[in-house]
Amino acid sequence: MITTILPIFLVILVGFIFAKKEKFTNEAEQLINSYVLNIALPALLFLSIAQANIKELLRYDFLISTLSGIFVAYILGIILAFIIKVKSPQSSLVGMASCYGTTGYMGIPLVIIAFGTISAVPAAIATILHNIPAIMTVIITYGVMNQKNEKKVTTFDIIKSAFLITLKNPLTLSVLAGMLFTIFNIALPKILITFSSFLGSAAGPTALFALGLGLAKLNIYEHLSVNKLLKIFPVVFIKIIIQSLVTFLVGYYIFNMSLDDVYFKTAIIMAALPVGAGVYVFANKYNYYKEESSIAIIMSLIITLLTLTYILDIFQ
Fold first, then answer.
1. Domains (ranges, CATH) in the chain?
2. pTM for the complete prediction?
3. In which region does residue 305 sit, left (phi positive, over 0), alpha (psi from -120 to 50) or beta (all else)?
4. Residue 210 in contact with residue 105, Cβ under 8 Å?
């Protein structure tokens, strides 16, 4: 299955090389990322969910298996942070790096190429499941810990703010909008199907190219050292191996999901993705774990070239 994985990484590499050669401005990169995040991916997710059957959205075996992998990976990340003496709220960033993958930019294109458009629905659901818990946890953790400095801010206000931030995410909104059509059995107008399909078809390659652009801006070489690599490897191991393994064990042994089930295959692939660039965004926002997260993203990306190929070979 290297023939499936390699084109994915080549598109990322093209974006990386292009950014290095052309010296992309921040404005140009933001424009491409904005198109992917606000238009292309939401169009793809909306169309997939809106055309789905209500039963496809309520696969509790898929939901619990996915969330189990995320939960265990996050907790192990927190334990690791405690071991290396990282206190809260900074420990939440280590936990996020341990469970937050590149689901939107890489996961969705990958599973659609590997398993076909039938995987778009579980991929869309998995994207939301992988995004919301990790993002909300980091925001709430930092909010609660900083509550002493903001006497007027209550815990309820912090949770409300975190909820609204994740709810306003275009990916979340697109899935919720699609669910309305599915739940109330509303037929999609043909013009809306064509429109969404036309925009969504650009989501995969554009997202991968944008991921390459983002990776080109990460200054990791000057921070590389044996000590840092040894410190970061456990996070990458948890993210790639442990999370996918827990997802597999829960789905296969507890819910008896079949290896031929596209929901099961999608859950495993989404769990086995490299560390997401969103970790670096939050690390930069809170001014902690920036160097480590950038190295973890690159390291995990290189490792998954092999691990994802192996997993897809098993499914074949």
1. 2-180+189-315 (1.20.1530)
2. 0.89
3. alpha
4. yes
